[in-house]
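Key result, reporting period 2: structure in, sequence out.
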């Protein structure tokens, strides 16, 4: 299946999921996760209209980022880059300034490193706070109870703009069983907005991957991270 065919399939699925939830399809941003494919496949995705690209390691993203930015001409759309993996402090210098979004902010030490690099480059970084809703020990992220205080602490880092919450449902759950995880993240977001008296910037929800994005959209996802269903794998190249 070509990437254009995959895009059409995903668009249809999103339209159906948003309709079931009483939402408009334009409220869902699709991130094409390219971590398992080549530079050529990533370029094919961008040329087919995938303009949000997600990577989880700079080592695998570097060649793709370099090639696309060196070969994007005047008048051509440049993709928006999302860092969706665990981010170590010593890798922040590689990410800030190239990736407009970070989906895995989960500790103050990381916020401090992002702030320092963003100041050097005179940029502001949009961040999702990663929340371990399911409580799995293998999952990164803070507990739901820690998020409110963390948001207050982030005010000392003006180069970070916390725009939303991110979570991952346990992969081994049946698709319908992921619903509670996504619902709890949405309810947490809604609580933060209610307590923020109009000042809370955390409005977006990054949740849902290839195996469960329909459920995530039904529960309010505004960003979904799609790899195999949208981009495919090495075997599809």
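The corresponding designed sequence is given below.
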């Amino acid at each position: 299946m070509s990437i254009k065919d995959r895009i059409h399939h995903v668009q249809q699925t999103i339209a159906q999921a948003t309709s079931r939830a009483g939402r408009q399809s334009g409220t869902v941003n699709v991130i094409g996760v390219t971590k398992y494919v080549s530079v050529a496949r990533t370029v094919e995705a961008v040329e087919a209209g995938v303009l949000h690209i997600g990577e989880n390691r700079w080592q695998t993203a570097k060649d793709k980022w370099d090639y696309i930015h060196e070969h994007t001409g005047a008048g051509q759309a440049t993709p928006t880059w999302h860092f969706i993996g665990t981010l170590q402090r010593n890798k922040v210098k590689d990410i800030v300034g190239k990736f407009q979004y970070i989906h895995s902010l989960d500790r103050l030490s990381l916020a401090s490193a992002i702030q320092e690099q963003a100041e050097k480059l005179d940029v502001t970084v949009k961040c999702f706070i990663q929340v371990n809703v399911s409580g799995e020990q293998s999952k990164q992220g803070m507990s739901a109870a820690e998020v409110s205080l963390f948001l207050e602490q982030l005010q000392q880092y003006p180069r970070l703009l916390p725009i939303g919450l991110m979570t991952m449902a346990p992969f081994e759950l049946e698709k319908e069983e992921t619903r509670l995880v996504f619902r709890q993240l949405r309810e947490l977001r809604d609580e933060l907005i209610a307590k923020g008296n109009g000042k809370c910037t955390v409005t977006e929800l990054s949740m849902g991957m290839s195996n469960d994005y329909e459920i995530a959209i039904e529960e309010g996802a505004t960003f979904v991270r799609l790899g195999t269903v949208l981009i495919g794998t090495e075997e599809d190249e």
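The radius of gyration is 17 Å. The chain has a mean pLDDT of 93. This case is discussed further under Risks and Mitigation.
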